[in-house]
Automatic annotation (TrEMBL):
Record's subcellular location: Mitochondrion
Family classification: Belongs to the AIM9 family.
Record's keyword terms, sorted: Mitochondrion, Transit peptide
Protein name: Altered inheritance of mitochondria protein 9, mitochondrial
SUPFAM superfamilies the record matches: Protein kinase-like (PK-like) (SSF56112)
Gene Ontology CC terms: mitochondrion
Protein origin, superkingdom: Eukaryota
Domain Aminoglycoside phosphotransferase: 34-160
Length: 510
């Protein structure tokens, strides 16, 4: 079969041409086997086996992956920089195309090395706590490298030739779907990449530039169809202001607000409204410069892997504590360090979280527990111990990242972070939190002698409180639905590839 098509997510390409092209790239005579890999959220993935023993992973982007050309061009440049400059183990890219008309394949694709390892999720359950800690140490070592290199701009990485005007003009044939990015690039003179390396030396690398952001925040929930500033940005304040203007433009111009599909609708429950989202965004823009941390290094620009779940980490099957590579670099953005700082999701767990350098404690009656109760208590202790040890590693080896975690406890952090998705949700919580900020106003950087910039009457504050109550009822109604139909709503919101169809069918019946 020469054409492969995804039914739910249209993506048509010529698999025979793809296989032949891959064979030429790795100097094989022909491809002898094609095997489907579980799809990424925004990709179709195939394993191509050659007659010379080489395996090639082919990743074909689906239309929802992001902007044509830019998404894949940035991904490849990001992988090269991470591999060569940040010394991160990841697949070597053999070849790629961001222009479906460049090759007979008929779609954007990346051909890359198959990592000689297994996904961490396959071996994690039976690993000892000691071995799990070794994996955590290895990930923290990567994060130390990522934290040691900072950039002068915010945006996404590209090869310089991929954002030159002659290249962009060639892409205009794809139509309006890429027009906003095209205009962003045309209007800006983009200099060579400048970064500060781990020794504090300023480095200029003419191979790369920082260009428009390919973050999912720029594309999801209809944002891809709206015109706004996608970067790059030269300062932290510019970066954050652009978030407010982006969300405002989308709230104003999208024909329908993107309410979560499972959001309950009933009398007495809260219904999202444009004017309330705009009010929250105006509050954000008024408060913004006072929300930034006094320590500017916490907001410095960094390249990071923000999807460190167990499917994106490959380990050596013979030495499961050795990471052979990380996949999943699509839509990477150079963004503030405090947006990157979080524990790797593969050590997330159900149960109380520890904070700071807090250590786990077994319950006082642990030795009296029996059966499942004792197993559950021991499992929680081990999970918490791993998180505690990760934070201790940060505190000792990457103190700036640890300080970012501490900053995330602040109201300022909440207001900076929540603003990124006000198009979709959170406007009432945002307004309520912004009002509460007045109580700690004088403790924020640069506020001495400055009046609190939000002016809300008693009536307005009461209206916000009433809306928060209604939204709380809505969330409680949703929680009850998820509990009743827990087989449809997985706890970690991740559905296995093989289970996706059954989940969607069940949701449709609901």
């Amino acid at each position: 079969m020469d054409l492969i098509e995804i039914t739910q997510r249209p993506c048509e390409f010529n698999v025979s041409e793809l296989a032949q092209h891959a064979a030429r790239v790795v100097r094989a005579d022909r491809c002898v086997n094609i095997k489907e890999f579980p799809d990424g959220v925004y990709n179709r993935t195939l394993l191509l086996s050659m007659d010379n023993g080489k395996d090639v992973v082919a990743k074909i982007l689906i239309p929802d992956a992001g902007r044509p050309h830019f998404t894949i061009a940035s991904e490849v440049a990001t992988m090269k920089f991470a591999r060569e400059v940040l010394c991160t183990n990841l697949p070597e890219v053999y070849d790629w195309s961001s222009n479906p008309q460049d090759t007979p394949v008929g779609a954007e694709f990346i051909l890359m090395e198959k990592l000689d390892g297994v996904q961490l999720q396959e071996v994690w359950p039976e690993m000892t706590l000691k071995d799990r800690l070794e994996v955590v140490k290895a990930v923290a070592a990567y994060q130390k490298s990522w934290a040691s290199v900072s950039f002068e701009q915010f945006g996404s990485l590209y090869f310089a030739e991929d954002v030159k005007e002659k290249r962009i003009l060639a892409l205009e044939q794809f139509g309006s779907s890429s027009s906003h990015f095209v205009e962003d690039v045309k209007e800006k003179s983009i200099p060579a990449l400048v970064y500060t390396d781990e020794k504090g030396k300023r480095v200029e690398d003419s191979r790369f530039v920082v260009g428009p952001s390919t973050s999912r925040e720029m594309f999801d929930n209809g944002r891809g169809d709206i015109g706004f500033n996608r970067g790059p940005w030269s300062s932290l304040k510019e970066y954050h202001a652009a978030i407010g203007h982006r969300e405002t433009a989308c709230v104003q111009h999208l024909p329908h607000l993107p309410t979560p599909s499972e959001w309950p609708h009933a009398p007495g429950l809260y219904v999202p409204a444009r004017e309330k989202k705009i009010a929250a965004l105006r509050s954000y823009l008024k408060l913004l410069k006072y929300l930034l941390p006094a320590d500017e290094s916490l907001g410095s620009s960094h390249l990071w892997h923000n999807e460190l779940h167990a499917r994106n980490i490959f380990v050596d099957p013979g030495n499961r504590t050795r990471i052979v590579g990380l996949i999943g670099w699509q839509s990477t953005e150079l963004s503030p360090l405090y947006f990157h700082a979080r524990q790797p999701s593969f050590i997330d767990h159900n149960g109380p979280n520890l904070h700071g350098l807090e250590r786990p404690i077994r319950p006082s009656d642990f030795h009296d527990l029996e059966g499942d109760a004792k197993k559950a208590a021991d499992s929680l202790y081990r999970d918490q111990a791993l998180c505690s040890m990760y934070r201790a590693l940060l505190h000792h080896n990457i103190p700036k990242v640890f300080e970012c975690l501490e900053f995330q406890k602040s109201t300022s952090w909440s207001l900076l972070s929540q603003a990124r998705n006000l198009l979709v949700e959170g406007e009432l919580t945002y307004l309520a939190t912004a009002c509460e900020l007045e109580k700690e106003w004088e403790t924020l950087p640069g506020t001495q002698g400055v009046a609190f910039p939000l002016r809300l009457s008693t009536t307005q504050r009461q209206a916000i409180e009433k809306d928060v109550e209604r939204a709380t009822l809505s969330m409680e109604a949703l929680r009850r639905v998820k509990v009743k139909y827990r087989e449809i709503f997985p706890e970690n919101e991740i559905v296995a590839h093989d289970d996706m169809k059954d989940k969607l069918d069940a949701f449709d019946r609901l």
